[in-house]
Amino acid sequence: MKHTSPQVLIIGAGLAGLACARRLANAGLACTVLEASDGIGGRVRTDRVEGFQLDRGFQVFLSGYPEARKTLNYAELNLMPFRPGALVRYAGRVHVMSDPFRRPQDLPQMLLGPVGSLADKFRMLRMRRDALQHRLCAVMKDSRRPTRDVLQAYDFSNAMVSHFLRPFLSGVFLEAELSTPCWIFELVWAAFCRGATAVPRDGMGAIAQQLASSLPPGTIRLNHAVQEIQGSSVLLESGERLSTHVLVIATDDVTASRLRGGYVPRASARGSMTLYFDAPVAPRGPWLMLNGEGDGVVRTVCVLSEAAPSYAPPGRALISVTATGQDDTHEDVSQAVRLYLRSWFGSQVDGWRHLRTDRIHRALPPIDVLSPDNCTASPRVTEQLYLCGDYRESGTLDGALLSGRKAAESILSDYALL
């Protein structure tokens, strides 16, 4: 344990790096954050395009995340909620799958709907209870079991899994096999049940802006890409060298491995493709719409401006469509999406204007690198080097915030500053 205040360099101004910096600053310890890009937030950024707010890929915020509740000021974010649950397109019609605890008015329609049996709906309530009481993994007796095994253990019908649970969860976890381990599923499902699914009024990027707002001026240096780590100093791509007492790598798993000079993981990260459309009329209200048919190029549709009017100029609607496939050209995908959605919304789709397609190749870390062992491992890997990032926890936004705080508190403890 040391008793001097160290100089701290943090590589990466994503949510983990910002959470680490803010915790250090709140304890009175100055630090410098080096960010390779032209803005903060990492994958959680929002661009302003022709009066629209376009998040980088479709994202939502779960207000029920435990670390986010401790870290963020929800009132300042001005969260705009979606309806709890989802609309499921199945058998040529739209069916409601809602949370009866928050929208009891949807209960009759949901119970009588064709997406799963009546028994399935009661199984959903049981799984909700177990997730909120942290008993879901205990039911499985192994926190590493995949999500698909959880659904099987609760005895959901094939129809319920095929038409609702798989489309919904594959959109959340960005993988169709439902291989995400039980301990992550429990965390995320409990967050869905505990709070609202929402977006901040000023876009998902407002989360990063809030974290950065309390940092002293000059803390964050944009366009400062680190080329390599050399002992107690870092070499920037500009040729500048910076020395430090403590170094925190707050990047994705691949960048962290490269900077440490170690093995670079080959596991594929989970990617996403989102198309944004400008429409004169919103086809639906503030719901997430799922493709429960199991076919076609479309996974989900969401009219963001119905939940958050600030996402679109007055008199316009912002529609987000998540799509399958990664190899088609933007124009091909746009045309395929319009053609498919004509069966959902009719000819009004012809009036939609394609704004942008976001292909996020590393939207979530590979499942292989996520382990409950990481959550209990020390962020300090050498005397001077600390790690944080969503891959060190659950691979979620909440995991990024938690990992950043843990790294900061480990530094503060090591230097007797807590």
Number of distinct beta strands: 20
Mean pLDDT: 93
- The CATH topology of the largest domain comes to FAD/NAD(P)-binding domain
Poorly predicted parts: none
- Portion of residues in beta strands equals 15-25%
Helix content: 25-40%
Q: Nearest-angstrom radius of gyration?
A: 22 Å
Architecture (CATH level 2) name of the largest domain: 3-Layer(bba) Sandwich
What is the SS-derived class? Answer: alpha/beta
The biggest beta sheet is recorded as: 7 strands, mixed
So, the CATH homologous superfamily of the largest domain? FAD/NAD(P)-binding domain
> Tell me, what's the shape?
globular
Q: How large is the count of helical segments?
A: 15
> Which class of the largest domain in CATH terms?
Alpha Beta
**How do the strands of the widest beta sheet line up side by side?**
8-7-16-17-18-15-19
Distance between the termini: 12 Å
Total discrete domains: 3
Write the layout of secondary structure elements.
Layout: E1 8-11, H1 15-26, E2 32-34, E3 46-49, E4 52-55, E5 61-62, H2 66-71, H3 74-77, E6 79-81, E7 85-90, E8 93-98, H4 107-112, H5 118-132, H6 136-140, H7 147-153, H8 158-173, H9 182-194, E9 197-200, H10 205-213, E10 220-221, E11 226-230, E12 233-236, E13 241-243, E14 246-249, H11 253-259, E15 270-279, E16 288-291, E17 298-303, H12 304-307, E18 317-323, H13 330-345, E19 353-364, H14 372-376, E20 385-387, H15 397-414
Parallel strand pairs: 1-2, 1-14, 2-10, 7-16, 14-20
Antiparallel strand pairs: 3-4, 5-9, 6-9, 7-8, 11-12, 12-13, 15-18, 15-19, 16-17, 17-18
Helix pairs in contact: 1-10, 1-15
